[in-house]
Amino acid sequence: MGRMYQKMALCGGEGGSEWDDGVYEGVKKVYVGQDLSRITYIKFEYVKEGGEVVTREYGTVTQDAKEFVIEYPDEHITAVEGSHNKVALTATEVITSLVFKTSKGRTSPTFGPNLFGVVNGTKFKFEDEGKKIVGFHGRSNNAIDALGVYFALESLTTPFPIYKLEAQGGKEGSVWDDGCFQGVRTVRVCQDDCRITYLEFEYVKAMRLETRHHGVKGETQSEFVVNFPNEDIKLVEVTYDNPKLFRNTVITSLKFETTTGRTATFGYEAGKKFVLGGPRLVGFYGKEGDAIDALGAYFEQIPAPTPPPVIGDSWGDYGIYDGVKKIKIGLYEEGIAFVKFVYIKGNGLVTGDDHGKITSLGAEEIVLEDGEYLTGIEGYYRPIPGAPFGKIVSIKFKTNKRETPLYGLDSGEKYSFEEKGHKITGFHGRATTDVIYSIEAISRPV
What we know:
Blueprint lengths: L2 E5 L3 E2 L4 E4 L5 E9 L4 E9 L5 E7 L6 E4 L7 E9 L8 E9 L19 E6 L5 E8 L3 E12 L6 E8 L4 E4 L5 E9 L4 E10 L2 E8 L6 E4 L7 E9 L8 E9 L4 E5 L4 E6 L2 E9 L3 E9 L12 E4 L6 E10 L2 E11 L2 E4 L3 E2 L6 E5 L6 E10 L6 E10 L7 E2 L4 E6 L3 E10 L4 E10 L1
Parallel strand pairs: 1-13
Antiparallel strand pairs: 1-12, 2-12, 3-11, 4-5, 4-7, 5-6, 8-9, 8-10, 11-12, 13-24, 14-23, 15-16, 15-18, 16-17, 19-20, 19-22, 20-21, 23-24, 25-35, 26-27, 26-30, 27-28, 27-29, 31-32, 31-34, 32-33, 35-36
């Protein structure tokens, strides 16, 4: 089953490029490099489910990196402390020190320039009551500009993991937390001249709507409707600021983007920006007072769909024909190995291509009489896991005058095609050089 992870916001500067390692079973080693003023390099050895070790590294090696070994699986990292500051030759702040602490009470050396243990810059700390750190994200170029962590939280009954993205904004107000749902159906927003004052969400749970609201509702309310379940919110861009003297830092704007590319914007973009993003937004949390002070979100991590296996090549007798005159069927031990059709076009005949291969069991030919036409096909197929079709094991043809015998095996999943008032004038499907994997009919009104 799934698990919930807390993704903490980055601490540090805004330079470099963003990177995100995601989550793992644990961390085995950390390597850190430095120069005279900053942390220039970091490398992690992660342990995946099943025991495989993978390495991720960032920044620039300026000298031999020092390592800190975690005694996985009996030990894990529970806290990361550090500092960030502007240093010579950097336009933005960078990480200037790092310290790692473990579940066994061990502490790494202080990485980064320090004189008698005194570090340079604004201090930060990631720690949550002994919870396990299972991944890192950050920003880097020729140094480490910013760093954030993932904490492993409780196990869930959901099949996919949930990521709780840290709430950002102001520090005032009362904490609220809507939790997780299947998705979001409607967002309603109120705003004044400089901030978001009210949020109302219609969540979907067990195909019923549940409403949650926060802040102070104003006279004018805007609405954004999501076409759930065919559409989800995948991204929320948020700004926060202290918009007027003697007011708290609050959320000043919101921009929602869905999986279909639709967007909706509320408020006035002012202040510092952050992004809440993932495949499917399933809940919000934050802080509220007479406005929305801070906002965070829950996202469900849905794996990308596995593409169906490519079996055989597509074939098709796509010409514009008036009907079918002859059918040739070849069998093998497990079903249909060969088909070929001769079509009527005006006063002449057109022979289609061979599809599949004639085996030692030979082939049989069906010839339609004058005035006779195909109206339907049916038979059995054997499903192929992950594919939208299966292996054809038998087929029978219907005409306006008769039904042929069933060619092949009388077992498997049944298929059929017949449209009242229509006649079959062509075929297409998938096949290898010796097996027919699918067959579909093309018809037109009689």
